[in-house]
User: What shape does this take?
Amino acid sequence: MAKFANVDDYIAALPEGLREVATALRPIVNEALPGSVEAMYHASPTWSVGGAAGKNLVCLMKAYSSYVTFALWKGQVIDDQSGRLEAGSREMAHVKLRSVADIDAELFAGWLKRARDLETVEAAR
Assistant: This one.
C-alpha cells in the first residue's frame, strides 16, 4: 500500500469492503481513547497516548487484501475472555476483521481502555 499523509487518505484508498470496516472501527477507537494521538506510523493508522505519534502506542489498524487487522500493542497482556485476540509478536495481539459484522464495539472498547491503561502507566515511568 502507498504511503499516506493521514488516516483519512489511508481509509479513502481502501477497497469498498475494507473501507467500510475501517470506517466503522475508527470512531470506536477514538471514543475509547479520548485525547489519544491518531496518526500514520509505519504506513498504518495508529493511536498513541502521551501526546506524540509513535510513542506509547496502544493500537493500529492495517488493511490486507481480504481483511483489516485491528491490533493492540499489549494485547497479550489483556485478559481476553472472548478468545478473539490472536497472539502476535512480542506482546501484540490482533483480530482480523473481514466485515463490519466482525466488529464488537463494546468488546473492542474494553480492550482499548485496558490497553490504554497499560500504556499510560508505561508513559508515566
